[in-house]
Amino acid sequence: MTPDVVIDVRDLRMRYGTTDVLTGVSFTARRGEVLALLGPNGAGKTTTIEILEGFRIRSAGEVSVLGVDPGHGTEAWRARLGVVLQSWRDHSKWRVRQLLAHLGSYYASYSTDHVRRPWEVDDLVDAVGLTPHAHKRVGQLSGGQRRRLDVAIGIVGRPELLFLDEPTAGFDPEARREFHDLVHRLSDLDDTTILLTTHDLDEAEKLADRILILAGGSIIADGSADELSRRVSTDAEVRWTRDGARFVHAAADATGFVRELFAQYGEGIADLEVRRASLEDTYVALVREYESGRSGAALRAFEEAIR
């Protein structure tokens, strides 16, 4: 495994009783990369994440997280991880700054020459936008402020790998934008690898370098949002106005079509837009394609069995 590979999953399988939840998941994540793990409910996302975090033992396959099998991870290994769950419901009597300083103290002994742990508490409070509320009790925070605290708790130890589960649930638009800036800061400046699970496909498209789509217990798509959209549809939609009239055209080569358009009409072209399939369109199409293929395979197997 190369040094910049943070997660390496090969043929990961998980069975509960006679039910196969994961049937052969394989993917890698590199240092500083932001991945979004998407999939329908019941696809196996939570099971996959829990295995990577070391909270669940897999049935089969090879998994390496920060160079360690998570099934045998030590406290020193776990100190290199950060986890932001969908919600926390304890610590209500602690004050924000006091709580983060207390939790951060557990990471001090795991500081290294390369990563100084924990995050300096006032810098952390500022990074998540809680400076005006630093001395409030946690139980006095609003839902959005509490969510910011959840994020702060997850990154207080300056993790090299951060797991985010629906991180902006309850955020208003301004808080969401600030959180997105924080994610980019962590990945770009601190080289943090981030694995994100979310049902907000617009958020996944804005944050993720790569999208993984999990369905039926395996990865059915892996690539950037643009790469996946090209896989679903080869045509882009080009919209423009000319002489007050609105035009729409589907083009396989949008760049070439736009060049021809300007060559023909020049400055007469206005309000030009080129639209490709959104991540939501792509996601729905890929999952439906997979489910249609699986249904077709099951039907063929049934027909073969009754012959």
Automatic annotation (TrEMBL):
Database matches in PROSITE patterns: ABC_TRANSPORTER_1, ABC_TRANSPORTER_2
Bilayer topology annotation: Peripheral membrane protein
Alphabetized UniProt keyword annotations: Antibiotic resistance, ATP-binding, Nucleotide-binding, Transport
Gene3D superfamilies hit by this protein: P-loop containing nucleotide triphosphate hydrolases
Pfam families: ABC_tran
SUPFAM superfamilies linked to this entry: P-loop containing nucleoside triphosphate hydrolases (SSF52540)
GO molecular function: ATP binding
Localization terms from the record: Cell membrane
Domain ABC transporter residue range list: 7-241
InterPro entries: AAA+_ATPase (IPR003593), ABC_transporter-like_ATP-bd (IPR003439), ABC_transporter-like_CS (IPR017871), ABC_transporter_ATP-binding (IPR050763), P-loop_NTPase (IPR027417)
Keyword Nucleotide-binding attached: yes
Family: Belongs to the ABC transporter superfamily.
Protein name: Multidrug ABC transporter ATP-binding protein
Organism, as annotated: Phytohabitans aurantiacus
Lineage: Bacteria, Bacillati, Actinomycetota, Actinomycetes, Micromonosporales
